[in-house]
Amino acid sequence: MSERKPYPSDLSDEQWSLIEPVITAWKDRHRSVSGHQGAYAMREIVNAILYQSRTGCQWAYLPHDLPQKSATYYYFAAWRDDGTDQVIHELLRCQVRERARRLEDPTLVVLDTQSVRVAAGVPASTTGRDASKRTPGRKRALAVDVLGLVIAITVLAANTHDNTAGMALLDQVAENAGGTVRKALVDQGFKSRVASHGARLGIDVETVERNPQETGFVPQPKRWRVEQTYGILILHRRLVRDYEHRPTSSASRVYWAMTHAMTRRLTGANTPTSRDPQTEAA
Fold first, then answer.
1. How many angstroms separate the CA atoms of 72 and 52, rounded?
2. pLDDT band, residue 35 (cuts 50/70/90)
3. What is the distance between the alpha carbons of residues 192 and 205, in angstroms, rounded to a whole number?
4. pLDDT bracket for residue 280 (50, 70, 90)
5. Whether the Cβ atoms of residue 170 and residue 197 lie closer than 8 Å to each other
6. For residue 144, which of 258, 53, 237, 63 has the smallest C-alpha distance?
7. Which of 69, 38, 30, 39 is nearest to 52 (CA)?
8. How confident is the model at residue 282 (pLDDT cuts 50, 70, 90)?
């Protein structure tokens, strides 16, 4: 097959080298009985996932010069179900923190939720209506560190109370961050149940209250990092609306979006935006 023209979302050689060992090790553990290695290079499978993440296209609309949808979805689902997407994400997260001269795992996290609308065909059993934000769909909840890196993700129906999302995030933080987290910052949407749950896990939950005299969006110290992370995610059009039938697929999309952002961060590459002429041309 002739070499294709690259897309802006493609991984460079340097970026691919950051995650290639994990993918190669996975492939070695999942050899075909017949010895067949597959029709597509693993780098092209990852490029197809990232292309869809950035552009928001449907599976059937993947370009013809990328792996076909059946092959791409097979690996996306396999890596989602066995946690390979999280392994890649955690590997890069630790490298970014070390690059910033920080320990691999944080001592402080910031929790927040975001309600997003869902696409037609998403099962109603996994959705709801956020009464306070008047948004029907799903609730995407994140715990991030002071660099804005994702430590925990949970995706729930939008009518789920922030308390439930907060407690689920704290459980993940306690498990994923090696027991190093001692403090979590939350907004006023999280109530005392979250603080009590955090105390049982050894995490001090502090509510950052907004100054009632301030109007509009006013960044709050440290808490603004989670807003920045949501802004990074929205650059990936597949995350502007929730198209996934499974909440676990929605979470996997977040891992891949952050993986893409961190490969660029580690290699000093600029992240294309919707106003980038090259991105628009693609």
1. 10
2. low
3. 9
4. very low
5. yes
6. 258
7. 69
8. very low
Task: State whether the Cα torsion 155-157-159-164 is positive or negative.
Answer: negative
| Whether the model pTM is above 0.85 | yes
Residue with tokens 């460079």: 12
Instruction: Tell me 2's DSSP state.
Output: P
pLDDT, tens only, 100-139 = 999 999 999 999 999 999 999 999 999 999 988 888 999 9
Question: Shortest CA distance to 107 belongs to which of 182, 40, 47?
Answer: 182
CA-to-CA dists, residue 209 to 113, 142, 204, 219, 254, angstroms: 16, 19, 16, 12, 28
3-state helix, strand, coil in the chain (%, to 5): 45, 15, 40
**Residue 236 tokens, joined:** 């990936």
Question: Residue 48: what are its φ and ψ, rounded to 5°?
Answer: -65, -40
Q: How confident is the model at residue 83 (pLDDT cuts 50, 70, 90)?
A: very high
Cβ–Cβ under 8 Å, residues 114 and 154? no
Which domains occur in the chain, in start order? 105-211+218-241 (3.30.420.10)
Contacts of 12 (CB under 8 A, 6+ apart): 267, 269
Tens-digit pLDDT profile for residues 147-192: 999 999 999 999 999 999 999 999 999 998 888 999 999 998 898 9
The helix (H) or strand (E) run that includes residue 165 is helix 162-176
Q: Could you tell me which of 11, 9, 57, 10 has the C-alpha nearest to residue 240?
A: 57
Place of tokens 């492939």: 27
d(CA 39, CA 162): 45
Count helices and strands (H / E) in the chain: 9, 6
